[in-house]
Structure formats: C-alpha cells, structure tokens
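Why this split exists: single-chain examples teach little about how molecules sit against one another. For that reason, every record in the complexes split bundles all components of an assembly together and asks for one structure covering all of them. Below is a record exactly as it appears in the raw files.
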Amino acid sequence: MSKRHSIGKKVAAYVGMPLLFWLLIVAVLATLYLHFLHPYVAPIAGMFFTGSGASTDSVKIDSIYDGPVLVHERTVDASLVKIPNQGTKYGEIVCERIGLQADLYFGESEEILKHGAGQSPRSLQPGFGYPTMISAHNNKEFDKLEHIQEGDIITVYTSYGTYEYEVSGTEIMEPHLFDDKLLLEERSRLIVYTCYPFNNLGYIYRRFFVYAEQISGPRIVFDSEGGGE
Amino acid sequence: MKKGMAILLAVLMLSALCVPAMAASDINEDEQRVLDAVSVVVTSEEGAEMSLYESDVNQAKNFLMRDEIDLDKATADEIIENIEECFAIVEKAGLETEKLTDMAEADRKALLAAANEAGAPVGVTVAYDAARNKVDFTYDGAVIASVDPVIKFTGADYSMLFVVMGAAVLAVIAMAVVVKKTARAK
C-alpha cells in the first residue's frame, strides 16, 4: 500500500466518515424534529437557533420581577407600577392548558427574544386599559401556541397584579397587514403573536396572532383619578 | 404613511428634551400636547406623506409615564417647537421615502448630530445602525425607543445550520474525490 493511499484512507476514516455520519444524524434529527419531536426538542433547539443570527443589540437584560403578586383589589395605584427599561423582565405569561410558560420582558429586540417573550413598547403593560402585545419565538417559548383554542385562558403575572385573558380568536397574516391602530384602542386585551408556520425550516413570512380579552386583573389608577374605585 | 425619518425626528425631540422631575407617572396635559404633536402627518413639497406608525405614540407614552419624567408647559412648548422644526427640515429635504437609509447622507448626518446635541443635556443619545437600518434612542444607559418594524421576526433561523451542513457536504465530496484519486494512484 502506497503512503499516499494510506494518507487518503486515514483522511477518509478520521474526517470524511465522521462528517458523513454527522450529516446523516442531522438529517435524521431534522426529520424527527419536524414530525415528532418538536414539542420536546424545541426548547433545546431554541437555545441555538433563534432570532436572525448575530445580534448587536445593546439592550441590557435584567429583572424587576420577583414572582407573581395576587391583588384582590380591582385597582392598583400607579405608584406601584414601574415602567421597565427595554430588556427588563417584569412578569410571566402562562397558558396552562397548552403548557405555555415564558418570562415576560419589556421590549422585543432580537436579544430580548433570546431570553423569553417580549412586550412591544408600542403597546402598554397590562392594567392601563389598552392592548398589550407580546411576541416570542415559534420554536421556543411560543411553540405551543399552535394548540391554542378559543376560550383558553392566558395569564400574565406581573409584580403589581395578575391578569387573565380569554382567547377570542386567532389570525394568520403577513406582518405588514397588521393594523397597528389596534394598539391605540381603549380596550384591555392581549395580542400575542409568533412566526407561522410553526414547523418550517424555510423562510417564514407570516405571523400567527392570538387575540384575548381581559377577564380579570386590577386597573392601574393615577392620583389624578382619585386613587381608586 | 411612514416612518423612519419621521420617527427619528419626533421621538428624538420628545425624549431628548424631557426634564427629569419629581415623580409623576400619569400623562399630564402638556405631555398629551407633545403626544399629539408627534402624531401629525407631514407632507413634503413633493407631496410625499410622512408620519409615525400609529402605535409609535405608545413608545413615547411609555417613556413619558416613567416616574422621573414630568413635563411642564415650557418644556412641552419647547419640545413641540423643535418637533415642528425637525419636520420642517424633513419637508425641505423633500424626502419621498420611508427609510432612513434613503436620506441623503449629509442630511442624515446633520440630523443625527442635531439629535445627539439636543439629547445630550438629558443624557439621551441616538445611535443609527445602517446595517440593520435601526435607530435606538437611549436614556440613562437603556433603550427607550427604536425605529423598527412593528411586527418582529419570531421564527427560527436555521441559516447557520444550513451553511455548516453545506460546508460539510462539500468536505465529504472532497474526501471522496481524494480517496478515489489515491486509490487510482495505487
């Protein structure tokens, strides 16, 4: 056996074959992932494949949330409510029936969405009487949204109160068709969205929206309103 | 109706001239006047309409509701005056675009310089990332508003995986060629 042939065989054995096996494994896993394992693998995969690649966000990730607070009053004083910086965790979003649970941050930059669900700064926090819009990745926190149904209860926990919303409907559309005037309506509702389809390796150009109406939770009142009801 | 430049102008002036004051988290009358001012639609001499996203007013509102921000009449007047002046600059520039990147570089630089100068007294800085076509407004070290699409991308991006797999496929093919050639040589 020539020396050159021996080197070629070694290269094939130590580099080529491992690469070949790696490719096969990835292909098999990708197939299994898309068809069977998505609910179980998504949280792990989401750690590596979220967002649109390298992020240059300068958002600082921190938290002002120490756990849910159950407020039985119908109102909460505005002085107890902090407007968080973008990147600050201020609550959780949960839908028990479908097993959805995610940390809730203010802001929805790439960096923030790597850590959890993000509230759009173009919407207001729960309790102000206006819509709250929250997004998260469809292969991580919001992968279970595909199972949501009308009538499901979504709960948003914050450090100043707990808010429950009943799902009133869902909608699939392209992002540019979303009417952001909805965010200015004086209506206590939750708008949740993620990319659609859920299990898709190709370019994702649609969004899955969930609309839910508030059914409980304290209203935030300011001094100018007389301090409560 | 749109966006980039108008948002930059309006939010900039809104945030840059806010004066830290005693706690007050409600939107007072003067702050509301400012919010109204940023909601206007500007028409350039060429007839192009520019405005914020409707919901961008909420970015401003979220900032104004912070405890440490409380505008008085004089400050609000100054903000509104500067907002109008900035819109006048945009009108004069005759922008027909919704993208900041389409603005003439000289105009953009002048605008950003003016923006940062205006924001400096209260620690507001404006940073523009041309690669991402995104503008961030930072106050006290934290982002308070951004000029970007309302609906974000929230899907998995497997492009890096595809690149790695593609490279691996090429490597395997190369290995096969090498092995075949060496076998022939034998």
